[in-house]
UniProtKB/TrEMBL annotation:
Domain of life: Bacteria
InterPro entries: Aminoglycoside_PTrfase (IPR002575), CHK_kinase-like (IPR015897), Kinase-like_dom_sf (IPR011009)
Pfam families assigned: APH (PF01636)
Protein name in the entry: CHK kinase-like domain-containing protein
Organism: Paraburkholderia atlantica
UniProt domain CHK kinase-like: residue ranges: 153-339
PANTHER family reported for this sequence: PROTEIN KINASE-LIKE DOMAIN-CONTAINING
Amino acid sequence: MDDVEHERTCNLQERVNMSVAKNSLALMEPCGPQPDTGSLPLQVEEITPSWLTSALAQSHEGVAIESLALEDVMYGTATKVRVRLAYNARGRELGLPESLIVKGGFVPEYRNLNAYIYEYEARFFKEVHPCLRANVPACFYAQTDSRSGQSIVILEDLRSRQVEFCRVQRPLTFAQAAANLDAQARWHAQFWQSPALENGGELAWLAAQDPLPDGESGTYHWGQLKPDVFASYTQLPRGAALPKRFHDRDWMEQALLDLRAFDRIGPMTFLHGDVHLGNLYFDRDGTPGFLDWQSYRRGPWAHDVTYFLISALDIADRPRWERELLEYYLERLAFHGVDNPPSFESALDAYRRHIVYGLFFWLVNPVEWQAEINNCAVAPRFAMAALDHEIHDLMGR
């Protein structure tokens, strides 16, 4: 059963106090997570039929798991476990998937470091996903155990629907990029200048997009800017592929601070926050889908659009297509309900300024997060865009 068959409409005017009347209806997929006072598995071996029964039964009464097989364990910042399930009669009657993905912090070192990331994704599926107009994997359970720092989501196994997962080494076609921009415009329009994102709004708890935040939230960013750390990345293959001017640590810091100041003006909306090819897929009918909701934010539209376009397009295609694609995005914003979208001139200015964010983050991307072959593919895409748009003179001076 696909996403559309699970979805139902919900009134966003009541749910999130939306201000754009055209967007007051959105699709809602009943993810089903309910408050759970029980503990969550901390190790892959603790994903048992008993625990999965208790988890799935919260939204599917009477369901029980009779047996399971751990088919695949994909370790990373978050560990994903593919499980194959045998249901009781009730589960078979409901047509529940035989294969599901259990995602959480099953590596102690990562869980201690990234507990907030896991909790943030669980909260997405519990509080944001039900009213977000986006193609997202179906969710069957989402929960956080504050005592252990563990958070777990149970998601559909997209492999069973034969979706096409995007890869950094396979840049998108013009049509694919346009389809993705339309999808982004849909949710950007949904939350364009929404009271839900303001202080006192239902989504005021969302982190604000900030390229160089102060305090604890900026620990990673400032840590990567330490002179010795930053210099070490310039010595890696991805650094060797970049023009020397972008090895200037002081320029990079000032450019990020310039972007930070720029982002404090202009309309705010809901952002995915990390729209690169590794987090994208296409359904068999060509509908774009979005993975890894661990970095969603409130912030300027140009963050998502710039990061996506430059990381997803081939270096030779991007200069030929970017203006037309940017114009298309603005048209789709209007189509989806934004009464006064940015002018092309102001949009292009915002697009240019946001290039520095991707340039920095793909230059200093730890190999624990992305293999060097991926960093070597994407960092030069941002560097070439920065050269084409003369970012070195526009910012950081």
